Amino acid sequence: MEEKRIVCQKCVYYFVTWERGKPHGCKAYGFKSQLIPSITVKRSSGADCHFFTLKHNKE
Questions:
Q1: CB within 8 Å of 59: residues ≥ 6 apart
Q2: Record's superkingdom (predicted)?
Q3: Which residue range(s) make up the domain with 38?
Q4: Which of 2, 38, 47, 55 is most buried per CB count within 10 Å?
Q5: Which residue, among 46, 39, 31, 34, has the nearest Cα to 7 in the 3D structure?
């Protein structure tokens, strides 16, 4: 079974915190972390992120 790769930077809920040590944030889950949020979610729950929503580019 192939593992699905979630790219948080392409999600509407992802944000950059600019905090030293916790540069990545997720508005859907409500946390900041050193790792990309999808990795933190996978490691802590064992499941893939259920909130991933692709950003729509403004063109």
A1: none
A2: Bacteria
A3: 1-18+30-53
A4: 38
A5: 39
Region of 19 (left: φ > 0; alpha: ψ -120 to 50; beta: rest) is beta
Residue 49: count other Cβ atoms within 10 Å of its Cβ: 21
Distances (CA, A) of 55 to 7, 13, 19, 20, 27: 11, 9, 23, 26, 14
In a domain, 13, yes or no: yes
Write out the two tokens for 34. 């050193």
In a domain, 4, yes or no: yes
Tell me, what's the pLDDT at 56? Answer: 86
pLDDT, tens digit, 9 for 90 and up, residues 19-50 = 999 999 999 999 999 999 999 999 999 999 99
